[in-house]
Structure formats: C-alpha cells, structure tokens
Amino acid sequence: MTAEWAAQVGAVLGAEVHDDFGVARVDVAVAGWLGALRTARDELGCTFFDWLTAVDEVRDGYRLVCHVAIPPSKGARMRTLILRTLVSREEPAVPSVSGVFAGASWHEREVAEMFGVHFTDGAGVGGRLLLSADFEGHPLRKDFVLASRVAEPWPGAKEPGESDASLARQQAARGDAAASARRAPRRRSRPAGVPEPGEWGPRESGSPDPDPLAVASDRKPRRGGAL
Amino acid sequence: MSVPERSRGVIALIEDNCTSCMLCARECPSWCIHVDSHGVTEVPAEGGRPRTTAVLDRFAIDWSLCMYCGICVEVCPFDALEWAPAHAYAEQAVGALLHERERLADWLVE
To answer: CA within 20 to 30 Å of B73's CA: A4, A52, A82, A162, which one?
Structure first.
C-alpha cells in the first residue's frame, strides 16, 4: 500500500485507512456499506470486484469483507482495497451490493447460506446456491454443530493397548456401578476443536444448557493452535 | 511414471517402529487413521516388575478422508510413518480407499 493510495482512499471515503499486510482496509458501519462500495467504484475507480465473504466474530456479529481493485493500466499498478462492516448477530441484515457490482450476487448468496446473513434488495434469485434445499442451519457459523464430528466416533479416543471392541465394552460397563468402582475413572482425551457433548449446538432460548456462543468465544486455542 | 525425488503421494507404515501410542490418530485433523492394539504384560526378568506394552492389531488410513497434510508423519515420535512417492491408487468404490497395514507397508521405498 503506497502512502499516496492510502491518502486517496481516506480522502474519498472519509474514513481511517488501515494497512493490512500491504492492502488498504477501511471499516464502515452497516448503514454506510452500500454507499462506501458505490463510492469506491464511482469515485475511486475500483471497478474490479474480486470477492465478498463473511467471518463469524461470535459476540461482535458477522463481519462482511469485500475486496475491490483498480485494474492495472499502462503505467499504473493495480491498487486494491478491502472494505469491512460488522452486521449484528441478532438481526443479520445488510443491503445487497449486487446493484453496484452484479457479480457480488453470487458471493452474497453464498454468505447468506453459510452465515445466515440476509441481503435485502437482492436480485431475488430463487433456490439454494450450494446447500441442498432441505439443509437446516448455517454451516460456517461458529455455533453450528458439524454432524459428522458428532455421529462419527473419534479414532483417537482409544488409549494405547485398546481396540474398538474393548472400548465399546468399557462404555457399556460405565452404567454398571460395580464396574466403575473397580476401575478408577480416567479422563479421556477429547478431539481438538470438538467441545464436550452438551456444551455445543443449538438450544432452546432460556435453556439452562451452556450458551454455544459463550463456549465458542471463551475456548482457548489448544495445543497446535486449533480452536 | 517417474516422479521427482521425495515426492509425497502416499504415507507408508513402518510397522516395526510403531508403538501404538495413538498420537497420529489423535492429531489427524480429518480423523482418517484407525489404530487398534492390545496390551501384553510381561515380566522382563526373574523377579522384575511386570511391564505392559501395546501390541499393534490394526493400522489403517482412509485415503478418502486424508487431506495429505502430513501431520501424522510429523508427530510420530518413532518415525513409523513416512512419505512415499506412490500416487496411482485410485479405486472404483470409496470403501476400497481404506488401506490396512499390509497395504501401507507395501508403499515403503527402500
């Protein structure tokens, strides 16, 4: 990011410009999202729409991220810009930018399915883009339960010297008080990134179960950096 | 087909080095390594303390799940897993991509 480009972006968008590893980045409020993208295209000249995506920031909401650029021309290198906004978790709605960049429609449909963010005034394309019609939930939300990680037994649950069969026998005997008394309870290791059963997933409002959002935001990175 | 030296197409098992410690199965992000073992208690010498060691019964990698990250090779404390250059092991049925230890040992290149 050159100082000249940063100054130009800051002056036109009227916002603070951050340097994200060499790329200019501007954060705007939801109300100014559509306007900022239109200004970027019309006044800055960022006519190339690269991509739009979202990040689940747990308690802060969903962060929309959009990458646009001025295509390279004779004597000028490509200049790029990242625009971000934070959509509230309670009411994840934001105006669609498909009127500014038609190609954004595809990306917005993906974000709508994966994060459950509603894009108002969208092109109104019917049908799902990636998920099947009867798929429930938004798979890239942090509180979404990955069904295969619940249904599938973890291959690492066994201790050295154990087989699938001996593990199943132990689990069957766990309900038996005499058997548990004979064997001192041993803490089983858990797979990385999969919280304990019962502390994860959707719950009824007002339920005494732990809040999946609290679990997702409080969980410390474990060994190896996995969440 | 010839491939460059040290190509990484498959992970081979050196069974003699494996202690069934489960580290690879636990670190695997795609849950594709299956290890079964049983404990054998032996008295190493007359009057000695009995020791239990794990004996490997099953070692399988499901190539339909593996993402070839190589974490298992990195974490193995006894170098029982090794990258090998074999790459042409496509199958007609997804279940056939589950390679048991005999097959995994065959990939080893001397």
So the answer is: A162
Q: Out of 3.30.390.50, 3.10.620.30, 3.30.300.30, 3.30.70.3270, which CATH number does the structure's domain B10-106 have?
A: 3.30.70.3270
The reply to whether residue A160 touches residue B36, judged by beta carbons under 8 angstroms, is no
Chain A nearest CA to B8, separation (Å): 23
Q: Is the ipTM of this complex over 0.90?
A: no
Q: Compare all CA atoms of chain B with the CA of A226 and give the residue at the minimum distance.
A: B29
d(CA A222, CA B108): 33
User: What structural domains and CATH numbers belong to chain A?
Assistant: 3-120 (3.30.460.80), 147-225 (no CATH)
Q: Give strand ranges (E) for A45-140.
A: 48-56, 62-70, 79-87, 93-95, 118-120
Least reliable range by pLDDT among A35-49, A173-187, A194-208: A173-187
Residue among A158, A224, A226 minimizing CB distance to B22: A158
Taking all residues of chain A, what is their mean pLDDT, rounded to a whole number? 83
